[in-house]
Amino acid sequence: VGDYVRVGAVEGIVQEITINYTKILTIGNNIVSISNLQIMDRDITNYHYESEEHISLYCYTFEIGFDHSVSATKIPEIFNEVFERYNHMLPKKIDYMIARSGAFERVYMIYLYVKQPQDIFVLRPRIAEEVFKRWDMERVKGKL
Hints:
The protein has helices at residues 36-40, 74-87, 118-143, and strands spanning 4-7, 10-17, 21-26, 31-35, 44-46, 48-50, 56-66, 95-101, 106-114. It is an alpha+beta fold and 144 residues long. Strand 2 and strand 3 form a beta hairpin. The longest helix has 26 residues, at 118-143.
């Protein structure tokens, strides 16, 4: 209870666990009840993480993909610029790495570390939106 988890396609903060079901608060502020029998048949990810300094954190991972209209050398600049605005308020710097690259897109895995799981609800969409706005600016510059 209290951890940020993904159970199958449902993601959020565990609110309650009983003998029959588990309740999860989602980013949309909905409570989803999942039968514990169903949970046993699904993939479960718990984002709880203990740092090297033995600090209890949540390491939430999410992907951001780009087409090839912005160069691979510009993408780290975009990430660093956006992430720098958040790193001062986080227990550990936001990190990223390339997850996969194909003919049409490059996909990066973002590692967001927070102390409180509800911070994921606020920071994940805000960071993604800022990255995409900054990426759009680069695409417009490239067409001029």
